[in-house]
């Protein structure tokens, strides 16, 4: 019998330094991975993530201008001079169709960077929960890390709750063929089970949810709490580049 070991890490900083799993699932529910999933579902060609704004600019300058959108967020707000911020509601088909989005956010893009050498890297949100769980259950990697983005190095409630949703659903799908790799996975599942029917309320309680409310992004929170609205699984096709297979 083949076992999957499932690990959860609350932040990129808490992931082990010298190891990588066969498959890493990155979560930044408010809002980077929700935005990536939305952009690809709306027809974007790919999303390329950068921790550093200068690298983003240099790389996007090499791309045909009419097929390129630059997106940046710091502290929850859009960075001036960029085409887009990090509100998923701005990533409509009319805006993103066939474009490559060069994106940098405060925490989410750092999480991708941390695991980018893993053989499989996936972006997960509540929007594509079942699609991610189906993909991982079918491909059955030996070791899976669910990596929350947190906020500037510390824990964030919403990422761990979403990590718990993924862990719970994978465990439900695989049963005895999946075992917990660390205590964080069990804690994340407990958090999810406590709040699963009130995820939007949990996001509003969370410190980053409150930050977004102060920035009048009320609708973003409602949107990020939607479950299973799209079937897409963004997968890394080159370091830092996410696309739909
Ligand atoms: C991040 O990457 O830190 C978040 O996605 C912040 C945000 O809500 O834009």
Provide tags for this entry:
single chain; binds D-malate; alpha/beta; 11 strands; 5-stranded parallel beta sheet; globular; 6-stranded mixed beta sheet; 245 residues
Task: List each distinct ligand once.
Answer: D-malate
Write the element-wise H/E pattern from the N-terminal end onward.
EEHEHEEHEHEHEHEHHHHEE
Spans of 5+ residues with little confidence (pLDDT < 50)?
A: none
Question: Share of helix among residues?
Answer: 25-40%
User: The biggest beta sheet, please?
Assistant: 6 strands, mixed
Q: Largest beta sheet: what is the strand line-up?
A: 5-4-6-3-11-10
Described by the principal axes of the CA atoms, the overall outline is: globular
Descriptive notes:
There is one protein chain. With 245 residues, the protein is of the alpha/beta class. It contains ten helices and eleven strands. It has helices at residues 32-41, 53-61, 93-96, 108-115, 129-139, 157-174, 183-195, 199-205, 207-214, 218-224, and strands at residues 4-9, 23-27, 46-49, 68-74, 77-78, 100-104, 120-124, 143-148, 178-180, 234-238, 241-244. A six-stranded mixed β-sheet has the order 5-4-6-3-11-10, with helices on both faces. A five-stranded parallel β-sheet has the order 7-2-8-1-9, sandwiched between helices. The longest helix has 18 residues, at 157-174. The mean pLDDT is 96. Bound molecules: D-malate. Residues 28, 30-32, 73, 76, 86, 105-108, 149 line the site of D-malate (MLT).
């Amino acid at each position: 019998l083949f076992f999957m070991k499932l690990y959860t890490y609350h932040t990129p900083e808490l992931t082990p330094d010298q190891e990588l799993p066969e498959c890493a699932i990155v979560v930044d529910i408010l809002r980077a991975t929700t935005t990536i999933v939305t952009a690809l579902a709306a027809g974007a060609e790919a999303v390329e993530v950068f921790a550093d704004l200068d690298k983003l600019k240099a790389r996007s300058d090499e791309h045909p201008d009419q097929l390129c959108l630059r997106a940046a967020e710091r502290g929850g707000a859009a960075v001036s001079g960029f085409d887009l911020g990090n509100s998923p509601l701005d990533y409509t088909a009319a805006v993103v169709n066939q474009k490559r989005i060069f994106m940098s956010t405060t925490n989410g893009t750092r999480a991708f960077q941390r695991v980018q050498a893993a053989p499989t890297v996936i972006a997960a949100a509540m929007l594509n929960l079942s699609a991610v769980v189906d993909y991982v259950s079918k491909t059955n990697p030996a070791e899976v890390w669910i990596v929350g983005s947190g906020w500037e190095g510390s824990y964030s409630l919403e990422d761990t709750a979403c990590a718990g949703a993924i862990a719970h659903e994978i465990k439900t799908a695989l049963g005895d063929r999946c075992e917990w790799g660390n205590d964080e996975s069990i804690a994340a599942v407990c958090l999810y089970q406590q709040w699963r029917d009130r995820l939007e309320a949990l996001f509003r309680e969370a410190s980053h949810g409150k930050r977004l409310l102060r920035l009048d992004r009320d609708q973003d929170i409602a949107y990020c709490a939607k479950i299973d609205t799209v079937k897409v699984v963004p997968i890394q096709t080159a370091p830092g580049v996410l696309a739909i297979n």
